[in-house]
Amino acid sequence: MTTQTIRERVRFVDLQAQIATLQPGLSEAMAAVLDRGDFILGRDVGEFEREFAEYCGVSHALGVDSGFSALELILRGLGIGPGDEVITQANTFIATVSAIREAGAKPVLIDCDEQGNFDVARVEAAITPATRAVIPVHLYGRIMNINALRELTDSYRLVIIEDACQAHGAILEGARAGSFGRAAAFSFYPGKNLGAFGDGGMIVTDDADLARILNSLRNYGQGTSKYVHERDPLNRRLDTLQAAILRVKLPHLDDWNDRRRRAADAYREALRGLPVGLPADGGDGRHVYHLFAIDIDRRDEVRDALAAESIESGIHYPVPCHLQPTFADLGLGPGSFPVSERHAERTLSLPMYPELPMEGVHRVADVLRRLMAS
Ligand SMILES: *Cc1c(COP(=O)(O)O)cnc(C)c1O
Prior knowledge:
seven-stranded mixed beta sheet, binds pyridoxal-5'-phosphate
C-alpha cells in the first residue's frame, strides 16, 4: 500500500473558524436577547445602527432584512419607481438588478471595464430623460472610483446609490464605502465580510428625511402612531438577534479586512509572472477583498485541477445579469455586453477569508504554476 499524504481541504470560506474565536461573546449576546425578549426592533437593533453609522462615517443607519431589501427600499424611499430608469452594471449579483425591478423602475445595464469594475465611462451614453439614479457596485470589495462618477451625476442631477454589499469597511481617500452616495446598501448574508447568522442588511445615509421615510417603509409604512400606516406596508426589519451578533463582530471587521488584504498580497506575490489577471491593489483606495477574483484562460480546467487537489474555488458570476432568464424582458441577448460576457467565462474566485492559512495560498499557486507551464 502506498502512503499518501492526505492534505487538508483548502476551504473557499470557513465561517466556523471565525465563530470559535468570538465565543463566549456571541452566546452571551444572544442569551441577553432571549432574556429581554425584544425580538423585533429591540435594543440591539438601535445600538447596532448607531455603531454601524459611526463606523461608516454617516449620520443614519437602518437595519433591514437583506441587502436586496436595502436597495429596494432606498429606491422606494427616493420615490423612484414606474416610469423611471436606474443604471447599473451587467456583471453584478442578481440582487442589484432585481431590486430595481422590484421597486417598479427599469434597470438599464452597462458593460464593465476590463477588470470587471463599474465603468464610469459608459454611464453617460446610458442616460435618458427617464434616468433617476445610478447604482455602482463595489464589486468583490474593490472600492470603485466614485469621484469620476460624481462629476457626471452632479451635472445630470442623478442620485448615486452605492451597492456596498461586498465592501464593508473599504476606504477611498479616508472615507468608507457607504458614505459617498445619497444612500448605500449593505448585506449581512453570512459569507459577507460582516455576516449575520442568517439574512440581514443595512441602509446608511446622511439624508435625515430619507432616513425617516425608510424607518417607516421597513416597518409596514407605520408613521409616528402605532397601527397607522402611511406608506407601502412592507415588512423588511432586521431581527434583534442578528443585530446582537453583528454588534459582537463589528469591532473585529477592520482586523479581518487587514487579514484579507494580507492574503491578497500573498496571492499577488505567489502568482507573479504567471499569465493570469490579478486584481490591482487598490492604489489610493483600500479594497476589502470580499472575493479574490482572477482572470484566467482555461478557467474550468483550472478549477477542476484545484478541486483534484482539494482546493475549493468559485465563479462570480457565471451568467451576467442581462443573460439571466428572468431578465429576458430586457431584450439584451448574447453580445450585448462583450466585456461582461468574457469576464463571466474567465473569472475565477480563489479561496479568501480572514483566517485563510498562507499554506492555502501557496497550494493554489503551486497548482496554477504547474498548469500554466503545461
Ligand atoms: C449579497 C449581495 C446583495 C444582496 O444581499 P442579500 O443580503 O443576499 O439580499 C446585493 N448586491 C451584491 C453586490 C451582493 O453581493
